[in-house]
TrEMBL record:
Domain Fibronectin type-III: 505-601
Gene3D superfamilies in alphabetical order: Immunoglobulins
Superkingdom of source: Eukaryota
Stretches that traverse the bilayer: none
Pfam families: MACPF_SNTX, Thioredoxin_11
Protein name (record): Fibronectin type-III domain-containing protein
């Protein structure tokens, strides 16, 4: 606390009414209007006045309370009086309470200020002997006398930009400031009419305006154009409308030395003011984030409860702000009037910072709510896309009604309760609090909620044609379910509640005792709800055919059946469970079963029987087992690489088989990586393992496919994976399945870039009572153990073997086995992982034998990590006859949209003509029906890592800048995050392409950029002017609507 040293104070008027000779109470920061020391006629004798004509404007980028307070040039004491509500704001001062409603809003404040004249009261000739009311001083009604007033007026225009302008924030702010600057110089008018360029007019339309001024208008401006017209008239409007802007206050004790004991005017420390301002800022940011979250949450009947809850949070924070302001006001008055110790004020602020409003706790709270909202939105997406659902609690007329009740939200929030408790507790009563953040969905209930919703959706989809079943979904509060945050499923049969647990899909079928076309088909019961199954339905499919037919229905819930009447051939089988009201989801398809084979179990002789076609047996065996290779084996740990059977990569060429160029540096990881990659690529193309870079040098050039291969290898390396090669020729229409198995191709490059977001691996660590040395004795024993482990897990969980990987075996007192599960969608991955977790933690799991017979009982759980995905080039990926050098900036039309040639780039065409066998029209070039448009996608490394860490696909994009505008363009598009491609390469996608350095055989280092040329399905995107600097960006709302068909390469010239 400091004591005033200058005798005269000069606070801002803030719209308050003042006149010379008026009394002022510093303790309450209020003028005393009904009592005066001298007669008004006497005062006028000692008043001087003079003109101070001046005007000016300022433009500010404003986004905080502190900046708004600084606009008014308030001293610390007046700031605190404003913060606490001791001074009521009026006129232009109301701007201080105006704040932006969303985090991504941009705000610009234009201040126009005028001063007209100054009046001064001389106190040299005034004394207490001619005072009208001398008792004023001793009664402590006032502390100061108004001896000076500066007259003028201030007007503030607050421009708010909520919509995205399509530019980066820096460029956007610069353009807006230039536009506002132009307004102030009146260059914006020509012949009395508002003149704007097209870009300026477009930018102006993104602005809305609020007016705060020291005089009232008949109609306040709300648009840029209205402000422009008003701004021209401001000098005239303000000429005769001046009010007090600043006052000078003379201490009364200087007029009467006997009142010297009343001269102690405590001033607040700047640090206390700043901390108080920051306290309110935190609350504003909290409220703003909830507002943003509410705005982003789709408006659906099933999400009504979330909107209601978020509205309650906003109201609670607003109420807390009011009560906090009242507490600060009480402390401030006590501080000003009674000289309260500053420490009490400081302790109160410290209490608020330390407990309820510390940054970590508020961040955790808002993050918890955001994650909860996103998960519930994902769940409702799943529900809405599954089957026709009635939202609400009214039972419909139907023989069977399956009702899903989601009750994960609480009406009362512990964090908000703590806010109010801490506010009203005494400082000496505050103890360290560790209130648990109220997560709607957490590790305790998320698995259960997700599983039940997934099962509900799968069951609804499996019975979508069954008109006897109706589905109802509703949201309720946890308080109505004894605080159980979960999902409840109730079956009504003829409106009467009946016990029913939705079953999951049965396990994958297997053939045993196969002999001369006769075998036993077995499967495992569903992990969940098996007690609801009364029978099983068996489907079969002839190899090479698409159709599945019902082959057999069991008499009861037995888990096997004998097959003997099938014609000789190759078949796959699926299983469905039959319940009281419908069928379960179908199991995964079995492996191909050849009824021509004979596989007795167990073998009756020591040596395996010779098959009738011995040349086919290795192929069949190879196709059904994963490829297992040991990366490292030590006495403590073996790390493994497991790939699907169809992976079939070209083996990397060892360094000893490579003759490198003279410029090769064996100690350079980049050189080793480059030439091993090129050597493997050449071995695939030329069918040789001896690669000579001296006889056939690698020359870096945009037209050389090898240059593109090196660039792709560097891209893969930066993304933490590797580039591999294969002689196989896979289609591009099953990329999600192949990426889940760990392999992406050029046709699914956007899936590859999104793999760490869209594809997650659920990792488990199993403790097994096995001997590490026995397992790692030979490569064969380790490989057999891994294959057997995958088979055992697949049979118990009921998922494809390709989705299961083994990462490591580690020596402990027994062994630790690191395994992972990755399916084509995260929901499926988490559902399979949850089933695996439940099985591992079931004490009966040992009865299943195999791997599970050795498991050590403990509480097992999984964690989700980004999936490891390799980028694989196929021998026939490229189609050189369609390669093209774009020497000029031409324009054509594709899919009804302009096709802008990528001037200065060289295209390496992909062979895609037969990669999408079900669609023959997408690649046409005559604008016929079904043809897709052309767009470009960049490969910026830093952007990719940011995108990949959160994912590029819909449910993982965190910054979807054009989502609001897209919804306005087309309200029917799904509520998903978008992918972005550009209409132009230069100025568009190239802005988001990183530079890769390539070193060729002569040691030259050349920089290149690579951009993907894509076809984009019309009707699957909206058009925007940002975030590109040229052309448009297309926001695509279906990842399958993007198909790369060329890779563009460009050499980056060194800038002089």
């Amino acid at each position: 606390m400091s004591i005033e040293t200058s005798p005269v104070l000069a606070p801002m008027a803030l719209g308050r009414s003042f006149q010379l000779g008026m009394l002022y109470d510093f303790k309450t920061d209020m003028p005393v209007s009904d009592v005066s020391l001298w007669d008004d006629r006497l005062i006028t004798n000692y008043v001087k006045a003079w003109s101070i004509p001046s005007s000016g404007y300022e433009i500010h980028v404003e986004d905080s309370l502190a900046k708004r307070l600084d606009l008014f040039q308030l001293d610390s004491d007046l700031k605190m009086s404003v913060l606490s509500g001791l001074v009521e704001l009026s006129h232009s001062g109301k701007l201080i309470d105006d704040r932006k409603q969303g985090e991504h809003h941009r705000r610009f404040v234009m201040k126009y200020s005028v001063t007209t004249q100054q009046h001064e009261l001389s106190t040299n000739h005034l004394s207490m002997h001619n005072a009208k009311y001398p008792q004023v001083i001793h009664e402590r009604i006032a502390t100061h006398l108004v001896t000076g007033i500066l007259y003028g007026a201030e007007v503030y225009f607050v421009f708010n930009q909520a919509a995205d302008s399509g530019e980066s924030p820096t460029i956007n702010d610069r353009n807006l400031l230039e536009l506002l600057q132009k307004l102030t110089t009146y260059q914006i008018f020509q012949n009395g009419k508002l003149y704007l360029t097209d870009n300026e007019r477009k930018l102006a339309k993104t602005l809305t305006c609020r007016y705060y001024g020291d005089f009232q208008l008949v109609s306040e401006p709300t648009t840029f154009e209205q402000v422009a017209h008003l701004f021209r008239r401001l000098p005239q409007l303000l000429e005769d409308r001046s009010i007090p802007k600043q006052v000078w206050l003379y201490p009364l004790h200087l007029l009467d030395r006997s009142s010297i004991r009343y001269c102690n005017f405590p001033h607040v420390n700047n640090d206390l003011v700043n901390r108080s301002v920051e306290l309110f800022e935190r609350l504003y940011r909290l409220e703003m984030k909830i507002n943003d979250l509410k705005a982003r949450t789709p408006y659906r009947p099933l999400l009504y409860q979330i909107h209601e809850q978020l509205s309650l949070y906003i109201a609670a924070i607003g109420k807390f702000q009011i009560e906090l302001k009242k507490q600060i006001k009480d402390l401030w008055i006590e501080f000003r009037q009674d000289g309260m110790n500053e420490k009490i004020f400081r302790d109160f602020l410290n209490k608020m910072y330390m407990y309820p409003l510390n940054a970590k706790k508020t961040n955790n709270w808002i993050q918890s709510i955001s994650e909860g909202v996103q998960k519930l939105v994902d769940f409702t997406d799943l529900l809405h896309n599954s089957v026709k659902i009635v939202v609400g609690n009214a039972l419909v007329e139907s023989p069977f009604v399956l009702r899903l009740i989601i009750h994960v939200l609480e009406k009362s929030d512990p964090f908000l309760n703590e806010l109010f408790q801490c506010l009203h507790s005494a400082n000496d009563q505050v103890v360290a609090r560790n209130t648990k953040i109220n997560c709607w969905l957490n590790q305790d209930n998320f698995t259960s909620v997700r599983n039940k919703i997934v099962l509900f959706c799968e069951f609804a989809q499996a019975n979508s044609k069954n008109e006897d079943i109706q589905y109802i979904v509703e949201a309720r509060y946890a308080e109505e379910f004894h605080m159980s945050k979960d999902v409840s499923v109730i079956l009504y049969q003829n409106r009467i509640p009946t016990y029913f647990e939705i079953p999951s899909k049965p396990g994958t079928a297997k053939a045993t005792n196969l002999s001369h076309g006769i075998f036993t088909l077995t499967w495992s019961k569903p992990v969940y709800g098996s007690q609801s199954i009364t029978q099983y339905k068996i489907y079969n499919q002839v190899d090479g055919m698409q159709r599945w037919t019902v082959f057999h229905i069991t008499d009861d819930d037995t888990l096997s059946t004998a097959i003997s009447k099938l014609p000789r051939g190759k078949y796959r089988f699926k299983i469905k469970g039959i319940t009281l009201i419908g069928d379960t989801a179908e199991s995964y398809a079995s492996e191909l079963i050849d009824t021509n084979e004979t596989k007795p179990t167990p073998p009756v002789v020591a040596a395996p029987p010779v098959p009738p076609h011995p040349t086919l047996l290795p192929v069949i065996t190879q196709k059904t087992q994963p490829i297992v290779s040991a990366k490292t084996i030590t006495d403590k740990r073996a790390t493994l690489d497991v790939m699907p059977a169809w992976f079939e990569q070209v083996k990397p060429v060892p360094l000893e088989k490579i003759r490198p160029p003279a410029s090769f540096d064996k100690n350079s990881p980049t050189d080793v990586r480059t030439y091993q990659c090129l050597a493997t690529y050449r071995s695939m193309k030329n069918k040789t393992k001896n690669i000579d870079f001296v006889a056939e040098p690698f020359k870096a050039d945009v037209e050389n496919t090898e240059t593109l291969v090196v660039v792709l290898n560097e891209l893969a390396n930066q993304l933490g994976t590797r580039l591999t090669f294969t002689n196989s020729d896979f289609k591009y229409d099953d990329s999600a399945y192949r990426t889940a198995c760990g392999v992406a191709n050029l046709g699914s490059i956007h899936t590859f870039l999104a793999s760490e977001g869209q594809f997650q691996t659920a990792k488990f660590t199993l403790h097994l009572n096995l001997d590490y040395d026995d397992l790692t004795a030979t490569p064969e024993t380790l490989q057999k153990f891994v294959v057997d482990s995958i088979n055992d897990i697949s049979s118990v969980v009921g998922c494809k073997k390709e989705f299961i990987r083994v990462f490591e075996v580690q020596r402990t007192q027994s062994i630790c086995l690191g395994i992972g599960i990755c399916a084509p969608s995260n929901l499926e991955t988490e559902a399979i992982a949850a089933q695996t977790k439940d099985q591992l933690n079931d004490h009966r799991v040992k009865e299943r034998g195999g791997l599970f017979g050795y498991i050590i009982e403990e509480q097992y759980d999984f964690k989700l990590e980004p999936a490891h995905v390799q980028l694989q080039l196929q021998e026939k990926d490229f189609d050189s006859k369609h390669n093209r050098k774009y020497d000029f900036a031409g324009t054509a039309k594709r899919g009804g949209k302009p096709y802008y040639f990528p001037e200065g780039w060289y295209r390496h065409a992909l062979r895609v003509i037969d990669k999408y066998p079900e669609d023959k029209a997408w690649l046409k070039m005559d604008n016929s029906p079904g043809e897709w448009a052309v767009g470009y996608h960049g490969t910026n490394y830093s952007a990719l890592k940011g995108v990949i860490n959160h994912g590029l696909m819909h449910q993982f994009v965190t910054m979807d800048l054009c989502a609001v505008e897209a919804k306005k363009q087309n309200p029917s598009i799904p509520d998903v995050k978008g992918l972005y491609v550009a209409t132009h390469c230069e100025g568009g996608a190239a802005n988001y392409a990183s530079t890769f350095t390539v070193k060729d055989s002569i040691g030259a280092h050349i920089d290149y950029k690579v951009v993907f040329q894509c076809r984009v399905q019309p009707g699957k995107f909206t058009e925007h002017t940002g975030p590109v600097t040229k052309g448009k960006a297309w926001r695509v709302f279906d990842e399958k609507a993007i198909r790369p068909y060329g890779l563009l390469l460009q050499e980056q010239k060194q800038k002089k």
